[in-house]
From TrEMBL:
<dbReference type="InterPro" id="IPR036909">
    <property type="entry name" value="Cyt_c-like_dom_sf"/>
</dbReference>
<feature type="domain" description="Cytochrome c">
    <location>
        <begin position="22"/>
        <end position="132"/>
    </location>
</feature>
<dbReference type="InterPro" id="IPR009056">
    <property type="entry name" value="Cyt_c-like_dom"/>
</dbReference>
<protein>
    <submittedName>
        <fullName>Cytochrome c</fullName>
    </submittedName>
</protein>
<keyword id="KW-0732">Signal</keyword>
<dbReference type="GO" id="GO:0020037">
    <property type="term" value="F:heme binding"/>
</dbReference>
<feature type="signal peptide">
    <location>
        <begin position="1"/>
        <end position="21"/>
    </location>
</feature>
<keyword id="KW-0349">Heme</keyword>
<dbReference type="GO" id="GO:0009055">
    <property type="term" value="F:electron transfer activity"/>
</dbReference>
<dbReference type="Pfam" id="PF13442">
    <property type="entry name" value="Cytochrome_CBB3"/>
</dbReference>
<keyword id="KW-0408">Iron</keyword>
<dbReference type="GO" id="GO:0046872">
    <property type="term" value="F:metal ion binding"/>
</dbReference>
<keyword id="KW-0479">Metal-binding</keyword>
Amino acid sequence: MQIRTWAGMMAVLCLPIGAMAQDARLGKKTYERYCAACHGADASGNGPMRSVLTVAPRDLGALARNNGGAFPLARVVRQIDGREPMVAHGDPMPVYGDFFEGRDVVLKVEEGVQIRTSRQVVDLVAYLQRLQRR
C-alpha cells in the first residue's frame, strides 16, 4: 500500500505544469505585491507609479487581445523570469532580485513546447491569464 502511494506521488510530481493545478490565488497575491504599483490593481497599466515612469506600463489584461486572441504564455514567462529583457523596466526582470528566478517547474507552452520556470512565475501567469479581456 505504501509503495502505491509513493508511486502516485512521484507520478504527480513529474507531470508538466499544464497537467498540474496552477494557483491563481497565489498569483494574485504575487501580482498585488510586485506588479500592481505600476500596472494597477486591475492590470490596466494605470498603477499609482505610472506618473513617475518614463515608459507607460503595459495593459496586462490585453495581452491575449494584442496577440491575436491567444495569451502569449512563453513570452510572458520569459519576460517575468528575466530571459527576455524588457526595455520598460530598464533592466531584465525580475526587478525584485531572485524572487521570480528559478527553473524548478516545467510549464507546457504554445505548440506543446515546454519551458522551465519558477512556481511563483507559474502562479502569477495563471492569474494574468484570468485577467484577459476581449
